[in-house]
Amino acid sequence: MAQATTLSFPKLKVELGNSDGPPETFTAPCGFNSRALNRSKNLSEVVIPDCDDEEAPAYVGRDVLSMTWSVTGEGVLAEEAVEIWESTWESTLPISVKITEEFAGTTLVHLGKAHLATYNHGANRGEKATITIDLQGDGALVTTITP
């Protein structure tokens, strides 16, 4: 049995774009201890009966109504990233987001626009201040796979 090739934390990068381009440049905010790319589909459902046996249980058929994506992250509130998070929060326009997943032999680059929907700071006595973010996609997330 061959062992799976996996991805380590630093190889899943989240970068935010600036609008100073072209070309647009991307910066990875410092401080993440966890980050995730989340994708989901909103589905419609209909019960499809068995035409040959109406007493048989029917199966559910589904169609895609819409697709969405988000990026979530948590970590320490790093001074090096405060300016980019503050300007992203203050913007009423979506920003460019780049998520890179760099495996040993394959790289996935996801590009899209998103709004910073959640931007929370917190602290407990005796601990470092933390940050929690939620970037909600605004439109398609385009993925390029390079072997």
Written description of the protein model:
The protein is mainly beta. The protein has a single domain (9-40, 68-146), classed as Pnp Oxidase, Chain A. It is built from 1 helix and 8 strands; from the N terminus they run ββββαββββ. Strand 5 (95-102) and strand 6 form a beta hairpin. It is elongated. The two termini are 23 Å apart.
Q: How many separate structural domains?
A: 1
Largest sheet: 8 strands, antiparallel
CATH topology: Pnp Oxidase, Chain A
- The whole-number mean of residue pLDDT values reads 96
Q: In which range does the helix fraction lie?
A: under 10%
Q: Quick one: overall form? A: elongated
The name of the CATH architecture is Roll
Q: Mind telling me the CATH class?
A: Mainly Beta
N-to-C CA distance: 23 Å
For this entry, give a set of tags.
single chain; 147 residues; mainly beta; Pnp Oxidase, Chain A; 8-stranded antiparallel β-sheet; 1 helix
